[in-house]
Amino acid sequence: MTWLRALRETARSGLRVERTRLEPLVALRAAGGVAIVVALSLWLWSPPVAASSAFGAFAAGVATFQRSWRPRPVLALATGAGLAVSTFLGYLAGAHVVLFVVLLAVWAFAAGMAWALGPTTGMVAALTVAVMLVTVTLPTSVLSALQHAALVGVGALVQAALIVVFPIRRWGAQRDALADAFAAEADYARRLRHDPTAPFDPTPLMAARSAAVVTARQARRRPEELHGNRVLAERIRPVLASLADPTVGAAAEGPERDRAREVLAVTATVLDAVARAIRHGGAVRVPEEADVLLRSETPGADLTGAARRSAIRLVSLLSAAVERAEGSGPSDATGTAHLLRPSVGELLPTAVRTVRRQVRWDAPVFRHALRVSAVSAAGYLLGTALPLGHGYWAPLAAVMVMRPDFTQTYERGVARFTGSLVGVALATGITQAAHPGTYTFAALAVVSIGLMYLLMRSGYVVAQACVGAYVVFLLGMGGTQLEQTVRDRVLLTLLGGLLAMAAYAVFPAWETPRLRDRLAEWIEATAGYVAAVMEAHADPSRRRPGAVRRALLDLRAAGAAWDQAVARADAEPVRHRGLSRSAVRDADAALSAVGRVGLVMEAHQPAGDAAPVPEAAVFAAALRKATEAAAGEVRARRAPDWKALRTELGGWPSDPAGDRVVRRGAELLVDTLDELAEALRPRSAGQRHPADGAGRGAAPAGRPGGTPGRGQGEV
């Protein structure tokens, strides 16, 4: 992708308004927190103090809107603590330019490294840099630095208190995550009726798992319908795939296929009903035809063999899901313990190790931290040197648009930059035309931030316009910047945006050259999952509990990293290095099919007293060995060789002991791995790849918008 095309694509996506569900009550509560802090500060102290403390309430409110499963009051308090520390240090060093620039560079570097702990932590850390830049311009003395820092913390405390006193839709985020998982499986069941190898995006299941991680206190208070249902959703998914699969499930045509389609249709209806009940906390309303299936003693009528077993297992899981969604099922229905969130003391060593792993020259987060540090210091010095006044606008704009990767920096950066320009220009124009008083400034600031909270998940440009206006009105309330013109602020904001864009161009961390590493990791994780499933078939009486589950989680993590890498590489203005778009599409589809083989075999895991299949253990060992060599070949830009696996398969008896699923799964696995090798085999200069006919700009099947998808049956 060329630079011009990359800029055009990112600008188009960044300026697009996202139509998502608005939360007016939550926005009103957050804006009310800012209003309370501003009103009390104006009444008890002065406008500068009110402006300082309002930044704490504003940033704490922003933190509570981030996608995080931690309690919202905790997010607000943690944000307030970080803001208070940055404010205190900024006031102490603000009188000395050199000392402040050094402090700013170090603080910005630390904030950049915070992205290693997740986007929510990274966003909050960026806010602490922004507050440090803004608050040092307010008139105060060094002796009052601690007081101002405390007031910033009080703003966050007010937001946390409002969340506790006026709760809105308790456990709403967790309910939505679990409901989305069931809704995704309902859609999957409908698509399987028409396409037995339809793809499935595991993202909702991954989000539901993240939402299910709770503290011990939360586990005691969690609603009954949120207990255990996630594990049921996980177990339903492979059974759906197994029932629809024409190889080991229902026959491709005839009465058996018709019955399978009927069961899948009813399953989708039940799953939708469960999703609605979980999302809104009501009863599960199942239609009569679905209720008949759930109560039927012969749900597998007209089905035989593995398909019949899948139908019976599916109805059992659906009945359990309905009972759990109504809170009437047994508390140990899933036989699993809570996913407990570690305490702060336990989490700190893990966080330190996570950050330390990113301290290397080629790590995207480390390079991002260096960029943020350099741009913050350079922007502040340039803004101070220019005869425009209040030069902190330049580094402020840069810090708030920078992200660890090119795609986010440009997509969100363009939107944030454009919105900030509009907001700053409009607010400055209102200020200079109307000359509002202190209380009018305060009211305008509260209205601006209320609109930002309301539209935060609707459109980046509009939300950032509100933020820009909020900053102007708030500082105007504090009695500063009234002499600065629209042109000055626009020029400084433009300077900050250009610095951010130039920093990534000069010191990039492209994802494109890492595609082969991500693919090799996905190959290893996929083969590890299939090997774990086959080992469970090899000796059912001695299989390790949780081995298949851990392998599946590793596979999902590797698959998500691959998807993210492909999406980022697709938007980067660099030429491919070793993997063309057509090779990415074909490799993606082949590996997804490999994962589907393991998924179908997982749905037919034998009971503990089932007959062992010793050939499966030998094949699983050969698969692990061949995969290790194949991953090295992929990293070395060579096609992997799976001949050893085909040789091993040739030594199997024609009718091994155990279920035919194992033998058939091994055959499909070898065939699919050969397709993967073909996709990665280098082409001669004049040879066209089979997928090249779609054109470079075409979107591959299974994923809209041109981002390579997972192909068939993603796990």
UniProtKB/TrEMBL annotation:
This is Uncharacterized membrane protein YccC. GO terms for cellular component: membrane. Residues 380-502 form the Integral membrane bound transporter domain. Coiled coil: none annotated. Pfam families: FUSC-like, FUSC_2. Residues 79-190 form the Integral membrane protein YccS N-terminal domain. Residues 679-715 are annotated as: Disordered. Residues 703-715 have a biased composition (Gly residues). InterPro entries: Memb_transporter_dom, YccS_N. Keywords: Membrane, Transmembrane, Transmembrane helix.
